[in-house]
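Below is one record:
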Amino acid sequence: MPELKTFTTIKVGGEPKNLIEATTERELFDACHRLWESGEDWFILGGGSNVVFDDDVSDLNVIRVISKGIEVTETEEYVFIKAQAGENWDELVEYCVQQGYAGIEAISGVPGTVGGSPVQNIGAYGQEVSETITKISFLDYQSKQELILENKDLNFSYRDSDIKRGRVGAIGWVEFRLKKLNGLSVPMASGQITNYLDKPYGSQLPLQDVRETVLTLRASKGMVIDADDPNSVSCGSFFTNPIVGHIKSLEFPEDMQKWKMDDGRFKLSAGWLIENAGVEKGFSLPGSNAAISKKHALAIINAGGATAAEILELARFVQERVATRWGVNLVPEPNLIGFN
């Protein structure tokens, strides 16, 4: 049986007890029913881009979701995309851009599957999937019922949802409501994109231009999976950007990277906090094969042969340095599975 590092972007993780591949929603839900009735440990694996498995997961049963299929329903103003959970996320974005469907173009290049997108409300460059998701199919662990959950049922927030907060179950498909804007994007809420293209903030831009710009920006940070780029052997951002209520009380310098949110709180740049706590790009602990990416301080990479223990050791070191310097606790973004 293959080790789980075969199926994860950070390339760590041991051999599970069982590995089940689900090619349809029915196979996924049936496999869940069987495992849940057994009472054994289980995990549902999508693209493996947002998970770090321990080196010893010999008691873990893994269901790998590889279901495929996209259904399209159009109205005069909107297009509804119903995609199976195993669909590749970036391939879905590419398809929508090619078809002229707007709303997720700035989330290009994010690794993983469609089924994982609602769990942590993936987003990038001013867009979040919660803005476009209408509903999902969901097998609920507690009730064992197959449900259709509406957007409001998921209680989305920044990189979070009820599912990530503990509503356990399996996602079979996700439906998105996108817009037809004659080949243009929704108004851009990212200065990085508009500055790169020398356009005013809030501009509606050609969809393909937005996608190509995002892929270029992400690649410059090692945030696009690339076999030729050792800085992409990661989970992407390892920590979420922390949100704080008051800036003055934390005594941050004026030039720190921060964004004021609609509710008056501030989102801080985790990458800035890390670098300004003395952890530089490319840093690694002595004798460790885990390292900070040379392109982005927010990414922890497998520099070659790293163990899961080494990845977690570096993550804890970063957390301790940031907490000591800034008094802020960094929260890991990927799921950490099998660790004590």
Q: What stands out?
A: The chain has three domains: 4-65, 70-220, 230-337. Residues 230-337 form a domain with the Uridine Diphospho-n-acetylenolpyruvylglucosamine Reductase; domain 1 fold (CATH 3.90.78.10). The chain has a mean pLDDT of 95. The chain is about 20% helix and 25% strand.
